[in-house]
Write a structure and sequence with these properties.
Blueprint (H helix, E strand, L loop, with lengths): L11 H7 L3 H12 L14 E3 L6 E3 L5 E2 L14 H13 L5 H8 L3 H16 L2 H5 L4
Antiparallel strand pairs: 1-2, 2-3
Helix pairs in contact: 3-5, 4-5
């Protein structure tokens, strides 16, 4: 499966327009993560209500909350999501690009680029695109 299929076939211009805000990124991640429905990680319940934070879900049985980014590629992501999405897009577009070249292109530290690239490839190797969004 080609890497670009994480975002579908989208032009660079449309990509940057779609993912320009934290809100739009969270909405997209939430839709991808729960496109097949919510399942509580603690009890397996499929009924939920909305959590305290935007795009989070709260299990109606166990009362545990889960954010849209939890258990995804973006779990514990310390950079703003639009920057992280831009980085992932560049990695998907040029998977053989070195972390150093990627760093200069997106103006993010090379170690940060290397870590996210490693995390993305790990997710893809252990379950494909579904694993990027935590369904496995």
């Amino acid at each position: 499966m080609p890497l670009y299929s994480i975002f579908g076939e989208i032009s660079e211009k449309d990509f940057f327009k779609q993912f320009e805000t934290q809100e739009s990124c969270m909405q997209w991640i939430s839709e991808k993560k729960w496109q097949n429905g919510f399942v509580c990680r603690k009890c397996g319940n499929t009924n939920y209500c909305f959590g305290r934070t935007p795009y989070s879900r709260r299990c109606t049985r166990s009362k545990s909350s889960e954010s849209a980014t939890a258990h995804t590629l973006f779990h514990h992501c310390r950079m703003p999501l639009p920057e992280a999405m831009k980085l992932v897009y560049e990695i998907c577009k040029n998977p053989d690009l070195s972390s150093r070249k990627l760093s200069s292109k997106v103006e993010i530290r090379s170690m940060t680029c290397w870590n996210l690239k490693k995390k993305l490839f790990h997710c893809l190797e252990n379950g494909g695109c579904d694993n990027v969004f935590g369904r496995i």
